[in-house]
UniProtKB/TrEMBL annotation:
Keyword flag Transmembrane: yes
Keyword Transmembrane: yes
Organism (species): Lusitaniella coriacea LEGE 07157
GO biological process: siderophore-iron import into cell
Gene3D superfamilies, sorted: ABC transporter involved in vitamin B12 uptake, BtuC (1.10.3470.10)
SUPFAM superfamilies in UniProt: ABC transporter involved in vitamin B12 uptake, BtuC
Domain of life of the native organism: Bacteria
Major site of localization recorded for this protein: membrane
Any single Pfam family the record assigns to this protein: FecCD
This protein's UniProt keywords: Cell membrane, Membrane, Transmembrane, Transmembrane helix, Transport
Similarity section: Belongs to the binding-protein-dependent transport system permease family. FecCD subfamily.
Protein name per UniProt: Iron ABC transporter permease
GO cellular component annotations of the record: plasma membrane
Membrane-protein topology: Multi-pass membrane protein
Length: 338
């Protein structure tokens, strides 16, 4: 009986991954095909496979202008979704996410400081700056939440406070900055992948790949931590060490994503919840499902932002906020008794 139940769950997980993979692929091809002039999806596929099309100019538009933007959107969505999943598992709070508990605020503060005050710094430095900002805020959260141990509830409450502080300092820097640099920072803060190039793809990919693989390797410990600190200790888990390491991975994933695509909110909240409804409660299934879900959400949000009021583009962060804020309120009302 137990074995057949496990087989059914595993089969459902595989089907969900296949469906999500197909959705991501279709969304990315559609996103690449849409622009100032439309390119047929079949021509996009041919170009990506190295097959010549009727219009030789399509290759430049696809490979140089549109594909990097779509890849950045997908990678940023994967990073934010995995960071949100790790955060919810660490805190045992379904309403926790990097954008809510202060991690994104720290990354944004550091990135905006570099963009406004050090505009000549190479872009490859930006993920490291954002990681440093997110790590610094996370360490402060951990320090202020420590009271004979790191209570998940205190982590969330202290994180909300630091999120507000980080947002206030970011606003100060933008206000005092030179007008053109401040305008660029404001667009970036809205969460936009406009104008992203292969430089940003190359800078972001190692962070997502390395930290994502490490998160998948440590996902068993996330399941153990989710059972509660006392149970986890009883099972032989080094609670504080495992929680600190998983939090570090979440910080790296969120920081690199924010540095590259700006503050795209609510992806880290929505993707884990939607994945949990599809594949159950084990993080071995939730984490990869949420990664694909997050990538699909950001790619589709970027596409909707371009289609909605064309030729005017809305940043994808605005689209995710329009969808994510009501979803957050729904979760808050649904879980208010807990």
């Amino acid at each position: 009986m137990a074995e057949s139940r496990w087989q059914r769950a595993d089969g459902r997980f595989q089907r969900v991954l296949l469906i999500l993979g197909a959705v991501v692929l279709v969304a990315m091809i559609t996103s690449v095909s849409y622009g100032e002039y439309a390119i047929a999806p079949l021509d996009v596929i041919k170009t990506l496979l190295g097959i010549e099309t009727a219009n030789p100019g399509d290759a430049f538009a696809i490979r140089t202008l549109r594909l990097p933007r779509t890849l950045v959107a997908f990678l940023a969505g994967v990073g934010l979704a995995m960071a949100g999943t790790l955060t919810q598992g660490i805190t045992r709070n379904p309403l926790a996410a990097p954008s809510i508990i202060g991690v994104n605020a720290g990354a944004s503060l550091a990135a905006v400081t570099v963009l406004v005050l050090l505009p000549n710094v190479p872009f490859s430095v930006l993920p490291f700056a954002a990681f440093g900002g997110a790590l610094g805020v996370s360490l402060l959260i951990y320090l202020f939440a420590w009271q004979g141990g790191s209570s998940p509830l205190r982590l969330v409450l202290v994180g909300v406070g630091f999120s507000l502080i980080g947002g206030a300092f970011t606003s100060v820097i933008v206000t005092l900055g030179e007008i053109n640099l401040a305008s660029q920072a404001l667009v970036w803060l809205a969460g936009s992948v406009y104008g992203r190039t292969w430089e940003q793809v190359i800078a972001l990919f190692p962070w997502i790949a390395i930290c994502g693989v490490l998160a998948l390797c440590w996902v068993r410990e996330l399941n153990v931590l989710h059972l509660g600190d006392d149970t986890a200790r009883g099972l032989g888990s080094l609670v504080e060490g495992q929680r600190g390491f998983l939090l570090l991975l979440a910080v790296a994933l969120a920081g690199a994503s924010v540095a590259t695509a700006g503050t795209i909110g609510f992806v880290g909240l929505m993707a884990p919840h939607l994945s949990r409804q599809l594949v159950g409660s084990t993080y071995q299934a939730i984490l990869p499902t949420a990664a694909l879900m997050g990538g699909a959400i950001v790619v589709l949000a970027d596409l909707i932002g371009r289609l909605l009021f064309a030729p005017i583009e809305l940043p994808c962060g605005i689209i995710t906020a329009i969808i994510g804020a009501p979803y957050f309120l729904y979760l808050l009302i649904r879980d208010r008794e807990r």
